[in-house]
Amino acid sequence: MYGKAFAPEYQGALTTLSVNSSLVDVLTAGTEQLRAAERAGERREAARSGLAVAEAHRRLGQVEDADRAWKASYRAAREAEDDAAMAWALWSGGTLARQRGALALAWRLLGLAAELGERGGDIVVRGYSLAGMAETGRIQGDYTAVGALHEQLLAEARKRGEARHTVWALEGIAQMHRNTGSYDTAYAMFEEAAEIAGRADDRRGHAWALRGLADIVSVRDGDAERALGLLAEAEVTCREMNLSSALAYNHKMRGNVLYRAGRYVAARDTYEQALAEFRAMNEPRGEALSRLGLAKSLAQLGRDLEETAAELAELAGTLERIGLRHARQMVARAQAEFGVEVAVEPKGAWTAAAASVEAGR
């Protein structure tokens, strides 16, 4: 049904790289090939090897280098008049923009990538770009607007037997079910994603699925030890593949599990670790979520209530600026939990996001 997972972002002379290749190895090979292509004046090859360089930098959390690399890849592709290569570069740039919390820019770049991919006849980059748009809307918390797009992309991936994309779609839909309280459905989808990723040797997708399962096991079953075991298993993959962002989110989830178990000192220390990791890679969404967990842990350990209230109010403003609806609701719940003033739910940002998603669909 599903073949081995592959990495379509590794192109040209780099197609021999595996989806499980260490990002350090990808960066080394991509940089060498990029320099060779530039010396030879091969603009198309420079664009495609530059894409691998951009993606390696992004996944390693080296955002400034990633930003320069995707733009250079786009320029080379434009000079080569290669629409598909231009689309891949824009996909990389849009994904980086989402990682940095620039959600409006992410939406715009991914939309352009989808259009160019269709024009260039590359259905894979078109699918990846639409998936990126769906994920951007999901992160914003606008599930109504992007739920159907997630389901459509899942159906397309299943039809093509594309394991990696099927795993991504399952995990995205599962996360929406988890966030709306449908824990059993979410667990089943994360479980299927883990099974498909395991059979297809998609270690990155498997690690993310284990993180999702750990979350459900913790919040639904109250089984902290099993959840921590799943996260420990996923962490091995994150470290072996140098998945900086995935590792930081793994640590943030570990903090969540510890907090729910009432182990507030350990939760505080883990949130502090995740916060430092997110700050090092300039990832504002992860930083804000880690700050929220840390604020709650410190409050449980006796922090002054006024300081907690001020921290939560600042976080509410930060999340409103980024446009993260579900995370903003998490802050409101924390404000209610500790009996501090609950800010008014912002409206305009969510309405605009929904309209944007619907227009894009």
From TrEMBL:
Superkingdom to which the source organism belongs: Bacteria
Which segment of the chain is annotated as a signal peptide? none
Q: What is this protein called?
A: Tetratricopeptide repeat protein
Species of origin reads Streptomyces sporangiiformans
